[in-house]
Structure formats: structure tokens, C-alpha cells
Amino acid sequence: MSHPITTLDMAMPSSSSTAGGVGIENSRKRSLDSNNANQAALLAARVEPKSIIEIHISNDTAHKKVCLEHKEVEAVDDTSIKAAAETPAAPASATAPENEQEKKQDKDLIELTAEEQQLDEEYRKNCTIFLQHLPCFKLQQPTDVDASTVPRIPKCRECRRRHISKAATSVSGNHNNSNSNNDVYCRFYEFRRLQYNAAGELRVAGFPNPYNEPTPADFSVWQPDEKTAPTAGYMDIQVCRYILLHAGDQFCYLWRQEAEALKLHENPDDTIAWKKAVQGIREICDVCDTTLFNYHWTCNKCGFGLCLDCFKDRKDGQRLRRVEKERGRDEYHWLLCTDDDAAAAGKQQHELRSLMLTQIIAGDSLNVLGRLLHDVRTLWQVPQVCGCLLSKQQVDDPELTALIQDMIKESQLKQQTSASSLATEQTLRQQQRLEELHAKKLEFARERGIDYVPGRVWTKETLGKDPITSAFDNFKHINFLRKGLAGLRRFLPPRAMTLAHSTQLAPGVPHEWLCDGKLLRLTDPMHPDNRVLYQDVWKCGQPVMISEVARSLNLDLWHPEAFCKDFGDKPNDLINCLNGNLVPNQPMRHFWEGFQCISKRLLDVNGKPMLLKLKDWPPGDDFAEIMPTRFADLMKGLPMPEYTLRTGNLNIASCLPKMFVPPDLGPKMYNAYGSALHPDKGTTNLHLDISDAVNIMVYVGIPKDEDSKPQLAATQKAIALGGCDYITRARCQDPDVLPGALWHIFPARDADKIRDLLNRVTLEKGFRLEPDHDPIHDQNWYLDDKLRARLFKEYGVEGYPIVQCLGDAVFIPAGAPHQVQNLHNCIKVAEDFVSPENITHCYHLTHEFRRLSHSHTNHEDKLQIKNIIYHAIKDCCTILTRALDERIESEMAKVRGET
Ligand SMILES: [Zn+2]
Ligand SMILES: [Zn+2]
Ligand SMILES: [Zn+2]
Ligand SMILES: [Zn+2]
């Protein structure tokens, strides 16, 4: 039975009737996409209805200022806020009665809990300075009588809004489930200092000092302390050195950027305020939504917060975006001040020189860690190319150097033996022999003063080098090419490998090379030595495929019928991939029943079966909650768990302390019908992601109720057109193998060349290039064979064509543009992670995303990459320093014991 749906198959433009920021969405749309469907089709581009979801997202950044872990809190009554929000632009006459009203409400609504009351009385009695522990609207304000002598305490912009919204809801009798966590919405919560005077009048007593105010607990969040346990899971010496090798230079760059804040500052009052990091809150810039890491500027009247980059932009006279004028903001997209005095004086624009420099890190911890990082890298022989003065220092203690070399060697051996649990006696003997050979080499090197670090695997090519130093050699090779770009890591060139060579590198690891030797395919997901080959290509920014992952999954859980049975009645939005239209709020049964059965598929206006994908399901980060069994199944089967698990020691997102809002790293599902018969239509258009990801094919199916021959033939054709190599094509012709999805992954370094081509194609077709748009981030393009051919011919850019079959896991490096076309019906599940190798891409992408409009899902810096880098470096330095201390201690004990 079919379900013909005509009315619900909404076209994009008609969505403007839905409430929300849609008006803005439409005005932002590329001219290419808007009216001319024919021409768009000619371009093989199609409208990804990315912006549809934006209907539901409040465009009000101030409202999103803090992201709480608790969802109930995020669902603060939106409509009432909207109605009353952003009043500062209102004329003075309108503000006056509102103030009257506010005053009345001050009396009506302030209700302190017994606990708050007690604390308040204590502060009143002792007249001590205290950090604001209540939201502004709960603070005692001067009465009408003494209003002339006692200044009002400015309410932050959140509290003004919240206050109004609360009044609105209480009028309508619709009570919010107010939760004490709501208080942290307040911009001055735990930030502003207050004090009662002897007369019992409350006054603002400035802001906390970053050196005096933090408690030892506050310091422990930021300081490398050999006593505190590292936040991450098990990390050994080699892992720490590896992370420092890849992320250390980026930290130094971050450190220098922060130091620049002091030079940029303009306020004649150069005191720095300290904003304590509050559990579960991610502070974001009010202009660009980037996470505030450390130095930023705040308005001491309304709490407006501004990141370093936005401050710098204003100073250079640069606007964040050209379009998108918003109410309540000035021409630079800065929020206007909500303070009454500012409004009265007609000075609602925030000025550079009136903002207060604010830091989040406690005391001098950033500088302490920056210096420690360079010391640790020097001591532990981790190459550093940040080029700063500190990186040039040398150790002139030969005994210490020898001791550390011993420790490195031991840890390498441990890594080797612990990894090779399959090691036979023979290979152990082999290792021993190599070890002896190596000891001789070491002695030789020491005698001649050669800097020689033991190698992990000793072959002709790598003899005398460990993976860390050989990675460094590659850096040097490409360094000069990139020198002009400050802070940009020197990207390693992709490498083509031969089986003969890689088998020497990692004997016994089953694998093959696809894409002319550039794509590694590991075929035993559980092999303990996979990492050797994986890292060798991953550090060059190349994708990786690991097959046979399905062996460790319970595939019954991932069957479409299982999803239909468990979630068939739940409604969700669908997308018709043929035209990009949204099919909103369908019971998911309609999607799953048509998955394997064309006669049960939803029909479009013309009675044709739709080519559907399930949109964003499960929603948000609810996967583990909605499907705990499947979550557990996936976690135990994830390949390269040291990278992909949330606690993996090479997933540096695991270093983020518990008090920070954890980044949403998935898992996410991708469920869609196969579209081999429409070779110019992508299931997922070309785009890129800010973090690394692994995507696993857990189910591939083919409709059972129709002749499968045309579908199969189209699949083979798509694979050939897709540019797949001989080995891949041969694999897909095996009757036992059902090819699932065709991927094209492009190197991250080539993103700008791809942009250039797509912009050129747009111009060639007679369209204008809209400002603030980006052909990759807008996700409007699927590169068909013709566009890919042009990309290669004119720019020399070649992607990795990959066919993902059942049980194949595809690893996509951060920043690498990629697109997917489902050949057959696919269920895929993906998990994000943050590898040290691609940290530079994450860092610079965050910067790039600032300029994207709010309609982009990538716009907000949810990853908090700077915090992740900071805490990863902190953990590694802590572990290495502690290991060395312990070793010296034990050596000393030995000496003491002998004498
Ligand atoms: Zn407040
Ligand atoms: Zn900003
Ligand atoms: Zn202000
Ligand atoms: Zn440096």
C-alpha cells in the first residue's frame, strides 16, 4: 500500500510561512538556488534543505549564550522572550513605562529560597565583598525613597529578558518549571563582586582579580600539577610525546594569540577581570558564537561578551559579515547595551575603549603551561617547529638526556610488547635481536654525539628513527612551502604506498592499498598493530578504511525491521533527496516500510516514489539515551578505539575536564534509500566537518519487490563513473558483496581549490557570488563526474573514491571535504573524535566558521577546540613531568641504597 502525500511535500520557499527566522533564511539564499530549478539542475547542484531545520532554531544568540547540560533549561519559554526581547533599540518613551512595570515586578517576583536568604543575611551582617550568587533580578535594589542617593545595580542583559519573560508567563498563568540552574543564565553570576555597606545598601564592588580571587580548586582546573591525576584515561610516555608532537606547536600559536589581547586592549582602565569557569556552562562570544577560551572583553553594565577575534576585527574596521542587519545590533553585529544609563545617554553602542578585559584561566596558569610545554618538549626530545625563542633552548645535562632516552626506549618496548599480544616466541626473539642491534647503534651515536632516538620498527627506511622523529623529517620537507601562513601547520604530502613497503613496516597486519596506493584498507579491525599503518597515513591527512567491523557488531540490532519495530510510531522529518524537499513530521514507519519495498514508499505530487532520507535521527545527542543497547554494541565494536572511543587516549577530546560542557561527538545515524539510478544526486552533498569522524556501514539492502537488475547495473556504472580503482571494482563485482555507498573524500588542504572551481562554475552560469556564502559550507553541491574531471584537470585535485560496503568503516579527517551517494539502501552510524594529527585543521576551521551566518550548522564552536588543546597539553606535560620525577626519585633511592 502506498501513502500518497501531496500537501506535505513542502517546497523550500513555502516554508517561509512557518514561524521563526525564516525571513532571514530566505534573504540569505544564493541566487543560484532560489528560483531557477532548471538551471540549478543543469549545474548538478541541488538545494540541500539545510536551512529548513533552521526554522526551529532561535536566531537569537543572546538566548543561546550559555549551553547547559540540562535540556529542560534550554527549553526556556522562547516565544515570550522573543516578544519582549531586545528592547534597547526601543525609544526612550517606550522604556519608561516598562521600567515602572519592572519596579513593580521587583516587589512581586523576588522570592529567595531559605538558603539564599541565609547567605544574603550573612553578607549583609559582615559587609564582606562577595561574588554575586543570585541572578541580577533577585538582588536587592534601592527603594524609591533612596533611589537618588544609592545607585541602582545594573541588571545583566539576560536578567532583564528573563525578568520580562517571567512576568509574561506568570500573567498567563503558565508557570515555567524554574530550576535553580536557570540562575547561571545570568551574565554576572559568580562574576560581579557585591558588598553591603553599614547602612545595608548593596553596591557593586568591581570584578574579581584573576590572581587573588581563584581558590586552589579553581587553579587545579588550569594548572599542571604533578599531584593531580590526568583527566584522560591511560596515557603512556609514547602517547604523550605523540600528542605533544602534533598539538604542541598549535598550543604555542594559541598562547601567542592570547598574548596579543593585552596589546589590543584600549580601555584606559587596564585592570583585568576574572570570570570563573562555571560547571556546565560554555560561554560564547555574543557576536560570532565562538567559545570564549580565555581573554575576552565584557561590558560591566550589561554583561555583553566579545571574543578576541571580534575585538580585533572591529579595531581593523572589519565587519564579521556583510549582510544580515539585525535588530538590537550595531553595524558590526555587536549587541547594543541594555543598560538604562546607556539608553538615557543615547550611548547604546558598545565602544572598544569602554570594555573590560576579562580572563577565564586562573592566575598565570596559561604562561606557566606555555613555558612548561617547551621545557618538556626539549627534555623529551619532541621536535618543535613553533619557531619561538623557547623552542630553541637545549638541555646541557648529558645524564638527564641519557636517562630520558632510556625511559623513551623502555616505553617503546612496552608499547611493542603490549600491542603484540599475538607475538610468538619467534618474533620475540627477533625483537631481542633488533634490540641488541639497536643498543649498538645507540652506543655508536652517543659516542659521536649524534641525536639518535630509538625506533619502533627497524627496517631499512626507519632504522635509527622512531615514528616521532621520522614524522619530523616530513615536516621539514614541506615546511618552506607553508611558511607564509602564520600558524598553519606544515601539512605532510599524501603518500602512495606499496604492499611490499607497508608489509615491512607492519609485518602481520592484514591490509591492502586502494586508490593507487593512497587509501589504506585494514582488513582485521581487531589486529593490535593496526595503529602502525593507520598513523602513518592519518598524519598525512589521508582517509582510511577498516573492513570487517560488522563481525564485532550484533547486526540484528541494526536491521531496518528492528528500527521499524522499535520506533515506527515516532514522528520525524524526512527529506526527498530527488528535490531536497522536506516531508515533515512523519511516523518513521513510513520511512522504514519503504526501505526494502518500493510499493510501500511515499509518493510525491506526481505519484512517483520518493527517494527519502531520515533527517537527523536520533536528534541531537540523544543516541545513547534512546538506544542504549545499540550504543553499547557500537562502542564495543568501534575500530581504532584509542582514537574513536570517548575515552580513547588518542582522542584528545577526552582530556576536557568534566566541568566543561562535553562536545557532542555522536554517535549519529545516516539512514537513506539508495539512489544509483540518479547519478547526479548525492545523498549527502559536499561539505566538511570540524572534527574527525568514523562512519560505519551497518546495513545494506536492496528493494525486494522489484526487478533488481536495472538497480544493480546502475550501481556498477556509478562505481565506474565514480573513478574507483581496479581493486575496488573487482570487489564490488563479487556477487556476495553488496556495495553500499560511494564516497568522494578530498584532502583538507585542497578545500580552497574546490571553492575556487565551484565559484567559477557559478559565475560561468551567469549567477552572482553572494557575500558570506561558501560553496562547501553551504552544502549545495554534489560533484558529479564532470565536475570532478574539471577539478583534476584545472586544479590537479583528486579525491579518494571509496565504495563502502557492509562492515566497512570510513575514517574522514577533520576539514576534508566529502560527499556521499547511497548506491543501495544504507544504514550508517558515525562517531566523531579529535585526533592530535588533525588538530590544526580543527583550530583553523573554528576560525573560518566565525564568519558563517547563523543558518550554518557548523557556525557555532561547539567543539571548544582551544579548551581541548589546552587540557590535552596540560595532561601530557603533567604525565611526562611526573614520570621523570618518579624515575629520578627511584634512581636516587638506588644510589642512596648502594652507599
Ligand atoms: Zn543577571
Ligand atoms: Zn567573536
Ligand atoms: Zn553593555
Ligand atoms: Zn613555541
Automatic annotation (TrEMBL):
UniProt record, GO biological process: regulation of transcription by RNA polymerase II
Top-level taxon of the source organism: Eukaryota
Keyword ATP-binding carried by entry: no
Matches recorded under Pfam families: JmjC (PF02373)
MF GO annotations: chromatin DNA binding; histone H3K9me/H3K9me2 demethylase activity; metal ion binding; transcription coregulator activity
Reaction catalysed by this enzyme: N(6),N(6)-dimethyl-L-lysyl(9)-[histone H3] + 2 2-oxoglutarate + 2 O2 = L-lysyl(9)-[histone H3] + 2 formaldehyde + 2 succinate + 2 CO2
Region Disordered: start-end pairs: 1-34, 86-105
Keywords carried by this UniProt record: Iron, Metal-binding, Nucleus, Oxidoreductase
Subcellular location: Nucleus
EC number: 1.14.11.65
Domain JmjC residues, every copy: 645-850
UniProt feature, compositional bias: Low complexity: 86-98
GO cellular component: chromatin; histone deacetylase complex
Cofactors named for this entry: Fe(2+)
Protein's name in the database: [histone H3]-dimethyl-L-lysine(9) demethylase
Organism of derivation: Drosophila lebanonensis
Gene, per the UniProt record: LOC115624421
